[in-house]
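Usage

Read records sequentially. Each one opens with the input sequence:
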Amino acid sequence: MRKASRWFLVVIILCVPVIALLAIRLRQHVGPDPIITTKMRLSQVTQASKFYHIAYVLWPTGFAELYAEHNSNHVAFLPPGERTTNDAWRHPLLYRPFDPALGYGTVVSMGRDGKSGGVGEDADIEDRFQ
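and closes with the structure output:
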């Protein structure tokens, strides 16, 4: 075998495992991070609650009031559909209205497992509005 073809074989032997590892890694990353997606949805609901408060000088008591068909001026504070009021794992978000005694309201995701508490992706995620 010539010297050039030996180097070609060495390069192929070294590159194939690296390319295989990259392909496996890329295949594992199939979508957006569910925690980041959930935090974005929580933030969207808290911002909608603040805008509702600015528009009506009261806090909404639940998700329904943030949709055009359920408030007096028919203003859409949230886009229609369950996607906004569910977390990335398709569990419904919990809306706790503004409580004057606490000085804030909250929107909560129970995490991947849909249960209170947990660690990592199973942990609760909360966003407050005031």
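Summary fields computed downstream for this record:
- The chain has two domains: 1-30, 34-129.
- The first strand starts at residue 94 and ends at 99.
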